[in-house]
């Protein structure tokens, strides 16, 4: 009785009451029952939720609908995103993946230079981990690189999404920091050190005691899509679009075009943005090798340095300033470069 009452309290968000029920349950049952109902994990979920409720986020559900569970990502609007989820390419799947994953997916960025995916790896000793795969200069894909123990826990991680700033990774994890099932976390990479920040749980009520995943910010972060199974059926899952009144960021997106004047065919380059004054790398992206297009998302009102590397040229750097009042407009940037002839 106590275990079921505790689970009922969790559903309605009364985690203190739920925690009391689980402790009462543990005081009256034997070791076999404790193992059967995994009360330690339920208590951990409650304690995580109690802590996260201290910084509860205000959200408004703009729209909600049930979609097919096995292809839920196809119902997202990816037009404002940095890329999209697609079925995982077989060349990136291990034998463990093929044997244990149903309908595996991967995230591919708009520039077609970076892929993130979840994989059991060769042995699957730690469940599913997140990996990154990068397009190499010769056009081939690199070997999948594990994102490391800061991101990957002893449990499963899945459904990665790299935001438009090129630094923020949203993903789902069943780690010990979860409220229950998959929770949505975010982490930012430091381009200067190559290290990820400690993952931050997005908290209640975005995360629930059920599976929640694939968080995709839109409208400069003031809105987002994500999926939850809190009230779903076996074949369907709920896709939500939410508004976060306190979360919108004053960012601007620069749509750039790299055009070397003495190499008409080549359009491949790396674009790195640094804060002026030696404060380190803000973001780094690759141009589309066919069109030369790229996008960077930056904070207005600051001075920056753009560094262009590619096409056999020496690295080229220039300073630029983003005015503080831009009305969240999208900006255009054209980078023209040619090899100097003495």
Q: Could you characterize the architecture of this molecule?
A:
By secondary structure, this protein is α+β, with helices and mostly antiparallel strands. The protein has three domains: 2-53, no CATH class; 58-243, Lipocalin (Beta Barrel), CATH 2.40.128; 252-337, Immunoglobulins (Immunoglobulin-like). Helices cover 15% and strands 37% of the residues. The chain is built from five helices and 21 strands. A five-stranded antiparallel beta sheet has the order 2-3-4-5-6, with no helix packed on it. Strands 7, 8, 9, 10 and 11 form a five-stranded antiparallel beta sheet that branches. Strand 13 (223-228) and strand 14 (236-243) form a beta hairpin. The longest helix is centred in the N-terminal third of the chain and has 14 residues, at 15-28.
User: How big is the Rg?
Assistant: 23 Å
In CATH, the architecture of the largest domain is Beta Barrel
Query: What is the number of independent domains?
Result: 3
Total helical elements: 5
Termini distance? Answer: 86 Å
Number of strands: 21
What is the fold-level CATH name, i.e. the topology of the largest domain?
Lipocalin
For the largest beta-sheet, the strand count, sense and barrel status come to: 5 strands, antiparallel
The CATH class of the largest domain turns out to be: Mainly Beta
